[in-house]
Amino acid sequence: MIKVCPNCSGVDVEQLKDSVLEENLYLGCIGLCGQNKGKSFGYINDELVIKDSSAEFIEAVKLAK
Predict the structure, then answer these.
(1) Residue 46 confidence class, pLDDT cut points 50, 70, 90
(2) Are the C-beta atoms of residues 50 and 41 closer than 8 Å to each other?
(3) pLDDT tens for residues 1-15?
(4) Cα(25)–Cα(64) distance, integer angstroms
(5) Farthest CA pair distance, the chain
(6) Banded model confidence at residue 33, pLDDT cuts 50, 70, 90
């Protein structure tokens, strides 16, 4: 399961949707607003992952499959 906030996670949600089946994607508040500014972050299989860019985060998602 991939969990990201579409407002503050810094992840390009449209690109993420192309990489993850919708049933494995949660888009909503993940409780980390205001943290990790300038980074892209979210939960991949219940583990917080913080990357320097959206592309790096999406690559980590692909590797986690």
Answers:
(1) very high
(2) yes
(3) 999 999 999 999 999
(4) 13
(5) 28
(6) confident
13 phi and psi angles, rounded to 5 deg: -65, -35
Tokens of 20: 């993850």
**Residues in a beta bridge with 48:** 43
Residue 21 reports pLDDT greater than 80: yes
Task: Compute the distance between CA of residue 43 and CA of residue 57 in angstroms, rounded to an integer.
Answer: 10
| CA atoms of 1 and 54, how far apart (whole Å) | 17
Both tokens of residue 38? 């300038």
Structure tokens that stand for 15 in this block: 């690109």
